[in-house]
Amino acid sequence: MISLSKEWALLSKAMYGEKYIDELADFLRNNKVHSVLECGCGNGDVIRGLAERGFRGVGIDNDKEMILMAKRENPHQNIKYQLMD
Fold first, then answer.
1. Residues 20-38: tens digit of each pLDDT
2. What's 3-16 look like in SS3?
3. Which of 51, 57, 66, 83 is the most exposed place for a label (fewest CB within 10 A)?
4. CA dist 42 to 13, 29, 31, 46, 56, Å?
5. How far apart are CA 9 and CA 37, in angstroms?
6. Where does the pLDDT of residue 58 fall: very low under 50, low under 70, confident under 90, or very high at 90 and above?
């Protein structure tokens, strides 16, 4: 049986794909943003996508399994992940 965290990670990949991340990155650049705090970062797909587009950031989530997945599946030198409520 798949865990709820893994199920959410699969669902979020479908909801927040590359087009979404590209549009978000454009919006952030147009507003002169360089650093991002993603609350509820899940497995880190979005913030890692932003890091690949030149942003720095912190991803926080209150689910330990999600933070572990983020650190394992979406590491990037410009991102820190933190377990936080």
1. 999 999 999 999 999 999 9
2. CHHHHHHHHHHHHC
3. 83
4. 10, 23, 25, 9, 17
5. 19
6. very high
How does residue 50 score in pLDDT terms, banded at 50, 70 and 90? very high
Separation between Cα atoms, residue 60 and residue 62, nearest integer Å: 7
The yes/no answer on whether domain 4-83 falls in CATH 1.10.15.40 is no
Are the C-beta atoms of 64 and 84 separated by less than 8 Å? no
Q: How many helices (H) and strands (E) does the chain have?
A: 4, 3
- The residue ranges of every structural domain in the chain are 4-83
Q: Which residues contact 72 (CB under 8 A, 6 or more apart)?
A: none
φ/ψ (deg, to 5) at 63: -105, 115
